[in-house]
Amino acid sequence: MSSASPRPSRPSSTSPASSSSPSAAGTPGPALLALPAGAPDIPPSADPLVPLGWDESWRQTWADLLADAPTGAVPGRVARSGRGRCDVLVATHDGAVSVAPDDGVVTVTAAWAPALERAVAADPVQVPAAGDWVVVVPVAGARTGAVERVLPRRTAVVRAQVARGSSYGQVLAANADVVAVAEGMAPDVDLARIERLLALAWSSGAEPYVVLTKADLPAEPDVLAAEVAEVAPGAPVLAVSALTGAGLEPLRDRLRGGATVALVGASGAGKSTLLNALVGGDVMSTRALRVDGKGRHTTVTRELHLVPGGGAVLDTPGLRTIGLAGEEALDDVFAEIEDLASRCRFADCAHRTEPGCAVLAAVEDGTLPQRRLDSHRKLLRELEHQAARVDSRLRAELTGRARVQQRAYRRYPLRP
């Protein structure tokens, strides 16, 4: 299972030009010209990939790969991924000069190269995900090409696959600078769900936010926001109304700086309405809650949307199940429990019946809510279970490889 690198620094604040939508892939556009080998570097201020999050760090990563990159390869960012192919946003260049009449970015539908298919077969986490930067070999004059490989991810929101018996992870969003946990203030706020989603957000390597949507509906939104802030230490909590625009400015500031914001949350949390408000258009249709208060699925795929003025929003489907993949940072989600645990008499205290347990003492005197401890125990059990499943899979893979080698030896024994 791949793990994300440490949280990246804030992307370049270069003011980008307006961006085209990935959904425009079917409309006529400029011919795609690959950057010729040996062509001079494009100044960052003129690079049409800057609004997509391309910065000096990514440029250096690309430069390190040039020696092994196929002829004609260009960098691109995955807008949407499917089985065996994905839509990739790439720049159009004639040498070092953009030839596109708009912002110099087009969408290419690219199939996976054989080497990438083999990597995905060995580990599904290697599947190109929305937000990934990839090496693309485009076809000149056409909007097709091949994805050769995925650049190392800075961050990745990974959950356990929902398929029964699977121990692999599933990448929900790649290379996000901010993971916004969306939770509706109406009909109610689910604190346990926020804690679970924050576990995914913290472990991704990105900066976690909690965005409480539908702030125009409850009578006292500030009271609810303060309650949520108590279970989200270290994460900004924003009470927003996508309909009026109230509370959205912190996210808009990050986007204007060139950041990528990933939206995660349950069905009915208001992610689609929030996406429309951030992008500034009706890019995603919305549906009302069912009469029982449960959410309806609107987004059915993971997709990258460019924001006019800079930045991008990564939309993800509503999560009915949020399986933890075994790498979550519970220390960040339950910072107060970790602090209390450092004062326990025993270093390996399980916080159940041990004498001198500072965590149990805090529950007894009301400093730590019992619900908070119960939630920590539940998530910890899930992480331990998932870790055991991964270990079992790895042991099975090693056993399988050994058997293949043994059969090959019996069939073709070494001869003196």
Automatic annotation (TrEMBL):
Query: Ranges for the EngC GTPase domain?
Result: 174-320
What does the entry list as the binding residues for GTP? T213, K214, A215, D216, G265, A266, S267, G268, A269, G270, K271, S272, T273
Chief location: cytoplasm
Which superkingdom?
A: Bacteria
The protein's Enzyme Commission number: 3.6.1.-
| Binding positions for Zn(2+) per the UniProt entry | C344, C349, H351, C357
> Which Gene Ontology terms describe the biological processes this protein takes part in?
ribosomal small subunit biogenesis
Extent of Low complexity compositional bias: 1-40
Q: Which compartments is it annotated to reside in?
A: Cytoplasm
- Recite the UniProt cofactor note for this protein: Binds 1 zinc ion per subunit.
**CP-type G domain: which residues?**
166-322
Pfam families documented for this protein? RsgA_GTPase (PF03193)
Region called Disordered, residue ranges: 1-48
UniProt cofactor(s): Zn(2+)
Q: Where are the transmembrane segments?
A: none
Which keywords annotate this record?
A: Cytoplasm, GTP-binding, Hydrolase, Metal-binding, Nucleotide-binding, Ribosome biogenesis, RNA-binding, rRNA-binding, Zinc
One Gene Ontology term of the molecular function aspect: rRNA binding
How is this protein annotated for GO cellular component? cytoplasm
The family classification in the record reads: Belongs to the TRAFAC class YlqF/YawG GTPase family. RsgA subfamily.
Purpose of the protein: One of several proteins that assist in the late maturation steps of the functional core of the 30S ribosomal subunit. Helps release RbfA from mature subunits. May play a role in the assembly of ribosomal proteins into the subunit. Circularly permuted GTPase that catalyzes slow GTP hydrolysis, GTPase activity is stimulated by the 30S ribosomal subunit.
HAMAP family given in the database record: GTPase_RsgA (MF_01820)
- Subunit composition and interactions: Monomer. Associates with 30S ribosomal subunit, binds 16S rRNA.
User: What is the protein name given in its UniProt record?
Assistant: Small ribosomal subunit biogenesis GTPase RsgA
